[in-house]
Design a protein that fits this description.
Blueprint: H1 6-45, H2 49-80, E1 88-95, E2 101-109, E3 122-132, E4 138-148, E5 155-163, H3 164-170, E6 176-183, E7 195-203, E8 206-207
Antiparallel strand pairs: 1-2, 2-5, 3-4, 3-6, 6-7, 7-8
Helix pairs in contact: 1-2
Length: 209
């Protein structure tokens, strides 16, 4: 089931258009104000009838543009009051079987929010620190795995990874474990990545999800 609707699309597109219109109008207002200031400077120097008429025209154009901006702002406030669906990303432990554990990630991808951008490969990154080793020291790990395919967009779905190699990573062996998404990144394909939707799974041995 998709998150988008025709109504939400209309609100989103209209809000974006109004934002662009307001920005253009503000730039135009700045130029008009500059011309008005120049006309005012000439009047201050010598208030001839011609200069006064010119100042009145410049002031009228400036006032009209300000009225236009006020009207646009009023409209965009109305549309921005509509609560468009937002992206949601939640993590949870996954007991796939009695012996296998892992992590599940439930993602809601809304086309009206860029926290999560669907339609591209996304990987899961999990790091852990603080596990005691046999020699009295501590161990850590960091792993990246494919999670979301390019075919997922505008909807809600749960993705997960579990296996024998994952159980010790998420069963509390490591007191500090963090998960994040690497959007637009797939292991094996190389390239830069940036962590997003970073969430603590364990903190000081206490489960956070």
């Amino acid at each position: 089931m998709t998150v988008s609707t025709e109504y939400f699309d209309y609100v989103f597109d209209t809000t974006n258009k109004l934002t662009k219109d307001i920005n253009k109008a503000i730039k135009k207002l700045g130029k008009l104000q500059e011309k008005q200031d120049n006309a005012q400077a000439l009047v201050d120097e010598e208030a001839t009838s011609k200069r006064l008429r010119r100042l009145d025209k410049k002031a009228a154009k400036t006032a009209a543009k300000q009225d236009e901006i006020d009207e646009l702002i009023g409209r965009i406030i109305t549309y921005e009051s509509v609560e468009l669906p937002q992206d949601e990303i939640t993590y949870s432990l996954w007991n796939a079987t009695d012996d296998l554990m892992g992590i599940q990630v439930t993602i809601t991808d809304s086309p009206y929010d860029d926290t999560f951008v669907g339609g591209q490969a996304t990987s899961l990154m999990v790091t852990g620190t603080g596990a005691r080793s046999s020699n009295g020291g501590t161990q850590s790990f960091g792993t990246r795995v494919s999670l979301v395919g390019k075919d997922f967009a505008d909807g809600t779905e749960t993705f997960g990874i579990a296996g024998t190699g994952w159980t010790s990573k998420v069963d509390g062996t490591y007191p500090d474990v963090t998960a994040s998404l690497l959007q637009g990144f797939a292991p094996g394909e190389g390239g830069d990545y940036e962590q997003s939707c970073v969430t603590a799974i364990y903190t000081d041995g206490v489960l956070q999800v």
